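Here we describe the complex-level prediction in full. Unlike the single-chain runs in Section 2.1, the four entities below were treated as one system.
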Amino acid sequence: MVRAVADMIITGAMVPGEKLDEISLAAKFAVSRTPVREALRELCAMGLVEREPNRSAVVTNVSELHLHSMFEAMAELEAMCARLSAERMTIAERQLLQREHYDSLALVRSGAAEDYAAYNTVFHTRIYRGARNDHIFDMVTQTRARLAPFRRAQFRLPTRLARSYEEHDEIVDAILRADPMAAGQAAYAHVTIVSDASTVFAAHDKLGRKN
Amino acid sequence: MVRAVADMIITGAMVPGEKLDEISLAAKFAVSRTPVREALRELCAMGLVEREPNRSAVVTNVSELHLHSMFEAMAELEAMCARLSAERMTIAERQLLQREHYDSLALVRSGAAEDYAAYNTVFHTRIYRGARNDHIFDMVTQTRARLAPFRRAQFRLPTRLARSYEEHDEIVDAILRADPMAAGQAAYAHVTIVSDASTVFAAHDKLGRKN
DNA sequence: ACCTTCAAAACTGCATACAGTTTTAAAGCA
DNA sequence: TGCTTTAAAACTGTATGCAGTTTTGAAGGT
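The structure predicted for the assembly as a whole is:
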């Protein structure tokens, strides 16, 4: 239930700023308002929606400043995970990372943006796991989820696919060399560039809508 | 309401493992079960309590492994904040930090553990703010809250007070010199030592109780 | 004395109802 | 025509009741 609504937000079925009124949601999921309310509270705690007293919950639409905060935090967290992964991943994990990364080149060449986006999630998740720290994993996963609505369109830019591959290449290379500093820096730079691409789209999105 | 229960957990009025049944809480706060249920959901999302279907919520009692994760994450976050503070704090902020730090020496000398603990919170919060990043602030604050139940007793060890002051000294010094690397390292070490002191107390706590 | 079984009590999950607030829209007035 | 007022519709916040599940405790058997 919570997950269903969260997915609607993360996958972009609901746009930032959109209202989530309890009665409609209750009808949609064929339950009463009570579980809907609880789900909304949880989503609020997760930062995906915002609530004010006696008003509908709305999909969080962060200010440009806060968006910058989130991307910077994301870069720091990614760097942290890459650094720790470079120290802690097993040989098997490193080899798997390298193999999947190599295979992803085919997706880049064929321009399969959807498939590459799916692989991209797996790639990053492997690095989060490689850090061997559940709490850091939770934080980075949650931050990623909150940024998802603002990062949706990134692979529509045709150059992003190849660019992303090259950046992954640097990260993988540093992790295979067990070079924490280099892995951290490469991961940080990777997010920074995604951030630049995304803010453009966020601005476009705003102009494109009415409310 | 949420804050009231959260405070009970953070201040130690409720011990990890303790059950929070809805009816008692509703009676305690003189409301019905509905708002209590919603508060519990929120606390669950915050990680302060855990819930399973058809069972009472209980104050989160993390495993030793997860506790280690949390302290490591805390060290990384503190280091991050100290590093960014060393880069971004204004002159005024740096001077205030130094001044308050200097004043805290009196508390150490007089052995005022309670007062020093209060000052300690202010000190760290200043560094979190100095990083100029709202999302990082949220993460570090939340992690700190979740660790609070396991860090309660740290200043009871008489040597911890003086030790803490010395560690703060290193952090303040690095921030005043605008040396991000040194600030980060000092902050990281500071948490690591708190972690060592706390796990001892966590273990004691476990032995001391029945359930 | 200890374990098993079963029933009652206690509690959670959800639906519904009602009170209070906000939003909307229509009617009256300038 | 445009602004103000006011009432109704819509929605949120909370209480309460019922169904289903878990827990507790006592009775019976070994």
